[in-house]
Automatic annotation (TrEMBL), chain A:
GO MF terms, alphabetically ordered: ATP binding; ATP hydrolysis activity; magnesium ion binding; phosphatidylcholine flippase activity
Binding site for Mg(2+): D396, T398, D816, D820
Predominant subcellular localization, coarse grouping: membrane
Source species of the chain: Monopterus albus (Swamp eel)
Protein name, as recorded: Phospholipid-transporting ATPase
A family per Pfam: Cation_ATPase
Catalytic activity: ATP + H2O + phospholipidSide 1 = ADP + phosphate + phospholipidSide 2
Region (Disordered) location: 1171-1191
UniProtKB/TrEMBL annotation, chain B:
Subcellular location: Membrane
Organism, as annotated: Monopterus albus (Swamp eel)
A biological process term (GO) from this entry: phospholipid translocation
Similarity field: Belongs to the CDC50/LEM3 family.
Protein name, UniProt field: Cell cycle control protein
Length: 1209, 339
């Protein structure tokens, strides 16, 4: 795209394989690999001017004005002085160049900063500090803890056992949990022995530079041996070294060839629909301009034949009265004069308005999240008005809708629920911040962050209720959580899933503290007494089993099996004796599910020693079987998990972000459709769907699409559609419109009733196939809510693309993680949730803020206003320029089509720049129909934007007609009023200069009053701009027509005296009054009648605001939505398979064990221990505090690498 | 305290501007404003209209075409291009007193003084009295920049060249004898034109400045001899020249020729018979132009123009009608407020 991009394209010949030798710069230099210096800047001091000008003139508007300038220097054609074009053009060029220059200076600065970072490089057998940019392929460098990885490296050795290093890849893929890389043993042996490292002469052959982050292939040849290299041994630029004292690496790719840089710069330039419409309109205007000029040229032919050829006594013609040639010249002359229909300042003004509205977003305190000190940020300043037209929102779930905090909220133990708070009369109370919390101080090991409100449960524990004890014992034993105790009594849990963490933490606080585990034992503290259970087996969780069990032997040698899992699954395996308890618990489970809580059922059974040893043997056999291991194990598990005794159920709240439900409700009132695309499992996703009000119990039906073949999926979709719309189900005929490019647009279909659709990743893959995609889209668009679960990042983007392809709508994608990047980039507008895991989503987004609920303010307030302002601006701008220009057209009929301007040339030059620039800018920066509170009160105000009502081809056409009317008034009223009259002192008033002054004054009054009509929010600034511009006009006019200016430059200011002589005439002012009023009255009448006869939603609300005198009724108190009936299971558990193996294998336990034994001093370790952050351990009470401020990442952040494609001004 | 500041370092400022809460006046097009507004505007316009119309009616205008197209026209014989320095007479009578001051205009029609190339054919520097432009006039004056002998033309350009050259004398016929009506040609041009915009070079005698230059081709006398009667009315500040150089906006125009303000005619032209003696020089027939003379008096609103008065009356009445229509619409159809 950019001119300099060529550099990258014209690479030498394509590199097929990379060869390099460690510590051999000479050898490596022969391949001319890129060094580690990066360059994202576009210009330098000398290339700036030519390159920037070249780029600017690629923009059609600028090129057009250059062309005009060329026309203007041809004397035969030039109908206007050169300065009328040069002044605005230079201004525009300078402003743009200044902006480009500052951008580029920033890029230079960040490039320099990155390039000048220091790193230890092994040169000539010594470690030397070098700048990053001097690092070359084949160098060996030393990295220390918390350092950024300098280039793409082959890991050679590290300080950690087994040559492991821990890295954080947040900047690459957004995941903040630590990843492990391991060096080859052969290089690991080099350790930090400088001499050995300096002698290392391994040769690497590997793939050429590419952008695949997850793959690497290559070989290392060292000491005659060949070793395979894969991604596990590679450290990529952009990662950060964590928990590792030092490591050595061999540079494989540097600078622009690193995978990070290869992944950058692809960000596509997004344009808004208004932009696209504007381009079409500008083309139309060009056509119209040509049309007008042609008419005038033809007029010129006739005039020349009838009049001009005779009017030669006083004006001889040079070109022998050749009418055709004269018409040709006239055509171009009028192109110059009428050029103002394509106003150059339009583009500049549009940019300014967008910039201003972006600043409002940055400045908005109501979108500032105090807890993480994150303000909202408009990272793109060119998309604002699009925010007012969103029809589809694609949202991620985890971290976007939810906080990714799990809270143990309620439970049901032996038929009794705990967790609710009742008042004296037995009425259930709303739990708020002020509700009294349970005091856990009796338990020294309790987690202080755990909050519970129901005292009854603690009482039950203290009363030694057997079931309650068993319940919590189960929670303390049956899990795969790891405990870490750095200081006595300070426990940290690392859980694979936040659900587990929440459960174990709950047990901990209620006095059943999980303390530590070894591969074959679990130590818990039961009410202050430490007990060690022998861990005999973990029957791990997976998606089919939906349950996990542990078999333990208590210190009393009692064998028990503890099981937790989905209610439906557990219920099938219960002993008959529980049937009564089952009924009660089912009721509780339904209640929990109704509240959107995630439920698990808990059960246990005591095992017979003999039976177990026999089972154990078979288990061993099965787990070593070579064939069919899985199914054999499954069978064994199935066998032992029978006749369980129900203990109760847990209810965990997947804590939604603040105000999510309300936001979704508001957005759906604004007729915005919300699709949730999540990588989570169906149950979890569905659960969230209910808890955030996206899916509702009142919905007629929620369809679940889970076909496993294309045909099945198609059938299910068809079925869904036929039940939504029985009459039109089989219609093959699609309700579609065909667009210009042959792409079909599917229009919305009406359905009665509300429906939801849940589709899983597998089915989605089929649904996105070409043959079914339309079917899928039709069905999905008929539903109120769509949830896609288990989708891959790619599928997220595909879904967005699908909607973009068939629906002529504006889409928005919102997400927080690296997996959302694709959809953020694909959607018209991408929003990143900042202050959470990783930066990737934010970096590729157009807008970012900290909380999902800010979305409603972004759209309903900022977006709506931006759209409104932009549309008003465009309508008015076209009006004022068309009106200005059309007057020339009418005058042509009275001046022999000679391309004589009506106005003074200075007026033409300054009209757009000074006289009318600020008022319209003021309007587009300050205008608001109703304030933000009312915008929230009436989300329906958003709908006109989605329907493109405020600016469309029709609106444009209306503008043109309106201008046509105004220009007729502006020309013919002064004409009629002046043509045969004289001044009050008998002198002549119909001279050209007086007429010009009169017309331009009328014009300025007319457009200013029109602006006043458009403006609905008169701030002091606006008023000042409008009145100031009028005052400015008179000031400038009187100055330019003054004696002094004329005496300085007689030929440039020939209008001397006109203002004085003309504006002292009463009939001149009466004409101005008449013209201005006549331009405006029909508009007022029309608008008034329109408001009375068919008011728009805006009119109604504005009227209502006026009625209410801006006193807003307090927003209705939002009661927590409670439902009791439920037809579904509340089971949801975000847990993956295979962790149990790790727990029992012992390998995993190595590091935490080190901390427990005080013998290992962890000197030199600067960070706290191994504490995975992010999704894998982000449950509330023990993980890192959510939404905490992200540590200031020093600037390798991707934003520095992000190359900006030009905004097409 | 400092710590707290740290924690909210990124919090945006709470100002009315950044939070878009600037106090503002929010007018809407409501019945309460529009209907009375229309009524008031309507009444005001009708008032202005009546005043304008009455004033306009009181202004007397006498216009006579003397082009001589008609065979019967007294100036018909002058239309023959072969007739040099032709004089013709137009007789007319005035029934009632033509109230003074009376202004005497000449009018031209179908004359494109507003043609772009005509308009640019002028050298402001030369007319400002800059002698360097006497010897080399601006290129814009072409083809009236140099004559065939390559002598610079001063004043150059099509506009100056085409200066109106007919002259008039007005006589009142009193008892069969012609009594000349004194015509006042002083101060008929704009003050700024004669004092600032146009200047003679500061050379005395003026004629010296015009050495080595030629007069415009169509002119009878060089610029320094435009008014033999008044030495100060010569060169570029000759009032007739200045009037001519103030280019007309439209193809039909009038230019002030003289004022009748002195002698027995301070009160105006009394009823009686008059004769106008025309030195017919200016050729307009070739392009279908017409020449007229116009006698007119003025009022506070300038010359006679019925348009403004009528327009104000029409617009005013329309405003009142519209306000009634809007009132009806408002009473009948205004949208219900319950939505």
């Amino acid at each position: 795209m950019s001119f300099f991009g060529l550099d990258c394209v014209k690479k030498k010949e394509r590199e097929l394989q990379r060869k390099l030798r460690a510590n051999d710069r000479e050898y490596n230099l022969s391949f001319k690999y890129a060094t580690n210096a990066i360059k994202t800047s576009k210009y330098n001091l000398f290339t700036f001017l030519p390159l920037n000008l070249f780029e600017q003139f690629q923009r059609i508007a600028n090129a057009y004005f250059l062309f005009l300038l060329v026309l203007q220097v041809i004397p035969q054609i030039s109908s206007l002085s050169w300065f009328t074009t040069v002044v605005p053009l230079v201004l525009v060029l300078v402003v743009t160049a200044a902006k480009d220059a500052t951008d580029d200076i920033n890029r230079h600065r960040s490039d320099n900063q990155v390039n000048n970072r220091k790193v230890q490089v092994l040169i000539d057998g010594k470690l030397q500090s070098e700048k990053w940019m001097n690092v070359q392929v084949g160098d060996i460098i030393k990295l220390e803890n918390n350092h950024f990885v300098t280039a793409d490296l082959l890991l050679l050795s590290s300080s950690e056992p087994l040559n492991l290093v821990y890295i954080e890849t947040a900047e690459l893929d957004g995941e903040t949990n630590l990843k492990v890389r391991q060096a080859l043993p052969v290089t690991g042996d080099l350790e930090d022995d400088i001499a050995k490292l300096a002698d290392f002469n391994g040769e690497v052959r590997c793939e050429p530079p590419n952008n695949r982050l997850d793959r690497f292939t290559g070989t290392l040849t060292y000491a005659g041996q060949k070793y395979a290299l894969d991604n596990e041994k590679i450290l990529l630029r952009g990662c950060t070294l964590r928990n590792t004292e030092w490591c050595f690496g061999l540079v494989l790719f540097g600078g622009p060839e690193t995978k990070l840089m290869q992944n950058c710069g692809k960000s596509t330039f997004k344009r808004t629909s208004v932009d696209r419409l504007m381009n079409v309109l500008v083309l139309c205007i060009f056509g119209f301009l040509a049309f007008m000029c042609t008419i005038l040229a033809i007029g010129n032919v006739f005039w020349e034949l009838n009049e001009g050829s005779h009017f030669t006594v006083f004006l001889p013609r040079q070109n022998d009265n050749n009418a055709a040639f004269s018409a040709f010249l006239t055509f171009w002359s009028y192109v110059i004069i009428l050029n103002t229909v394509v106003p150059i300042s339009l583009y500049v003004s549009v940019e300014i308005i967008r910039l201003g509205n972006s600043f409002y977003i940055d400045w908005d305190r109501k979108m500032y999240y105090a807890r993480s000190d994150t303000p909202a940020m408009a990272r793109t300043t060119t998309l604002n008005e699009e925010l007012g037209q969103i029809k589809y929102i694609f949202s991620d779930k985890t971290g976007t809708l939810t906080q990714n905090i799990m809270i143990f909220n309620k439970c049901s133990i032996n038929g009794k629920t705990y967790g609710d708070v009742y008042d004296d009369t037995g009425q259930r109370l709303e739990i708020t911040e002020r509700t009294e919390r349970v005091d856990f101080s009796f338990n020294p090991l309790a987690d202080p962050r755990f909050v519970f409100h129901d005292h009854a449960l603690v009482e039950a524990v203290k009363l030694e209720n057997l079931e309650v004890h068993a319940f919590f014992r189960l929670l303390a034993l049956c899990h795969t959580v790891m405990a870490e105790e750095k200081k006595e009594g300070e426990l940290f849990y690392q859980a694979q899933s936040p659900d587990e963490g929440a459960l174990v933490t709950a047990a901990r606080n209620f006095g059943f503290v999980f303390r530590s585990r070894t591969p074959d034992s679990v130590t818990i503290v039961e009410e202050g007494e430490q007990r060690s259970y022998e861990l005999l087996a973990i029957l791990d969780f997976n998606n089919v089993r939906k349950r996990m069990s542990v078999i333990v032997r208590s210190p009393e040698r009692k064998l028990s099996l503890y099981c937790k899992g989905a209610d439906t699954i557990i219920y099938e395996r219960l002993h008959q004796s529980c049937s009564k308890l089952m009924d009660v618990t089912t009721e509780h489970l339904n209640e929990f599910a109704g509240e959107g809580l995630r439920t698990l059922a808990l059960a246990y059974k005591d095992l017979d020693e003999e039976y177990f040893s026999q089972w154990k043997e078979r288990h061993h056999e099965a787990s070593t079987a070579l064939e069919d291991r899985e199914s054999k194990l499954d069978q064994l598990y199935e066998e032992i998990e029978q006749d369980l005794l129900l203990l109760g159920a847990t209810a965990i709240e997947d804590k939604l972000q603040d105000g999510v439900a309300h936001t979704i409700e508001q957005l759906s009132k604004a007729d915005i459709k919300i699709w949730v695309l999540t990588g989570d499992k169906q149950e979890t996703a569905e659960n969230i769907g209910y808890s955030c009000n996206l899916l509702r119990e009142e919905m007629n039906e929620v369809f679940v699409i889970s076909g496993s073949s294309p045909e099945e999926v198609r059938q299910e979709l068809r079925h869904a559609r036929s039940s939504m719309k029985p009459d039109a189900a089989d219609s093959v005929l699609l309700p579609e419109r065909t667009l210009v490019k042959g792409v079909k647009v599917i229009t919305d279909e009406e359905v009665n009733g509300e429906y939801g659709l849940v589709i899983n990743g597998h089915s989605l893959a089929y649904a996105l196939e070409r043959s079914i995609e339309v079917e899928f889209l039709r069905t999905a668009c008929m539903c109120k809510a769509v949830i896609c679960c288990r989708v891959t990042p790619l599928q997220k983007a595909q879904v967005v693309e699908l909607v973009k392809k068939y629906k002529q709508v504006v889409t928005l994608a919102i997400g927080d993680g690296a997996n959302d990047v694709s959809m953020i980039k694909a959607a018209h507008i991408g929003v990143g949730i900042s202050g959470q895991e990783g930066m990737q989503a934010v970096l590729s987004s157009d807008y970012s803020f900290a909380q999902f609920c800010f979305l409603q303010r972004l759209l309903l307030v900022h977006g709506r206003w931006s759209y409104l302002r932009m549309c008003k601006f465009l309508r008015y701008f076209f009006y004022k320029n068309f009106t200005f220009t059309f007057v020339h057209f009418w005058y042509a009929f009275f001046c022999g089509f000679s391309a004589q301007t009506v106005y003074d040339e200075w007026f033409i030059t300054l009209y757009n720049l000074i006289y009318t620039a600020l008022p319209v800018l003021g309007m587009s920066l300050f205008d608001q129909d109703v304030n933000d509170m009312w915008s929230f009160q009436h989300p329906q105000l958003y709908i006109p934007g989605q329907l493109n009502l405020f600016f469309s081809k029709k609106a444009f056409f209306t503008c043109a007609l309106h201008s046509c009317y105004s220009s007729l008034m502006l020309f013919f009223i002064p004409y009629a009023a002046m043509h045969d009259t004289v001044r009050d002192d008998g002198k002549d008033v119909a001279d050209y200069q007086s007429f010009a002054l009169l017309t331009q004054t009328c014009l300025l009054f007319a457009v200013s009053i029109q602006l006043g009509l458009e403006m609905s929010y008169w701030t002091a600034v606006n008023t000042f701009f409008v009145l100031g511009s009028l005052a400015m006009y008179f000031a400038v006019t009187f100055t330019m027509y003054s004696n002094g200016m004329f005496l300085m430059l007689p030929s440039a200011f020939p209008f001397i005296g006109t203002a004085r002589n003309s504006l002292n005439q009463p009939n001149v002012w009466l004409t101005i009054l008449l013209t201005s009023i006549l331009c405006v009255l029909p508009v007022v009448t029309y608008r008034f009648l329109l408001i009375q006869l068919c008011p728009t939603i805006n009119d109604k609300v504005m009227f209502k605001v006026r009625q209410a005198k801006a006193t807003l009724p307090p927003p209705p108190r939002r009661a927590r939505i409670r439902r009791t009936s439920s037809r579904r299971s509340g089971y949801a558990f975000s847990h993956a398979q295979g962790y149990g193996d790790l727990v029992t294998s012992g390998r995993f336990l190595r590091r935490p064990a080190m901390f427990l034994s005080s013998g290992f001093a962890h000197t030199g370790r600067t960070t706290t221990g191994f504490s995975p952050m992010g999704r894998s351990a982000g449950y509330s009470p023990t993980g890192r505090p959510q939404n905490a401020k992200v540590p200031d990442v020093e600037g390798t952040s991707l934003q520095m690498y992000r190359t900006f494609t030009d905004s097409a001004l | 305290m400092v710590k707290q500041k740290q924690e909210t370092a990124n919090q945006p400022d709470n100002t009315a501007f950044t939070q878009q809460r600037l106090p503002a006046w929010q007018p809407i097009i409501s019945a309460g404003i529009v209907i009375p507004g229309f009524l008031i505007i309507g009444l005001a316009f009708i008032g202005i209209g009546v005043a304008l119309f009455v004033t306009s009616q009181s202004i007397q205008v006498l216009e006579m075409d003397y082009t001589g197209v008609d065979k019967t026209s007294p100036c018909n014989r002058c239309t023959d291009p072969n007739v040099k320095s032709c004089l013709c007479q137009m007789d007319f009578s005035i029934d009632t007193l033509f109230k003074g001051p009376v202004f005497f205009y000449y009018g031209l029609s179908n004359y494109y003084q507003n043609f772009r190339k005509y308009g640019v054919s002028i050298d402001y520097n030369q007319l400002f009295g800059d002698l360097s432009y006497f010897t080399s006039p601006s290129e814009k004056c072409s083809p009236y920049q140099y004559d065939n002998n390559n002598n610079p033309i001063v004043p150059c350009g099509a506009m100056a060249n085409s200066m109106f050259s007919d002259t008039f004398k007005l006589f009142q016929i009193v008892n069969g004898t012609n009594k000349e009506v004194p015509l006042d040609g002083k101060g008929i041009a704009w003050w700024t034109d004669s004092n600032i915009k146009y200047r003679n070079p500061s050379v005395t005698p003026l004629q010296m400045a015009f050495n080595n230059t030629v007069k415009p081709l169509l002119w009878a006398n060089p610029a320094y001899q435009l008014d033999p009667a008044d030495a100060n009315n010569n060169g570029f500040i000759n009032q007739d020249f200045l009037v001519w150089m103030r280019r007309a906006a439209l193809p039909n125009f009038r230019k002030l020729y003289r004022r009748i303000t002195s002698g027995d005619y301070t009160q105006g032209l009394p009823a009686g018979n008059y004769t106008l003696q025309i030195a017919y020089n200016y050729p307009v027939l070739s392009f279908g132009g017409r020449k007229t003379v116009v006698f007119s008096n003025v009022s506070w609103m300038g010359g006679k123009n019925d348009f403004l008065g009528i327009a104000y009356l029409v617009i005013g009445s329309m405003c009142i009608i519209m306000s009634i229509v809007m009132l009806i619409v408002y009473a009948k159809f205004r949208f219900s407020e319950e939505e």
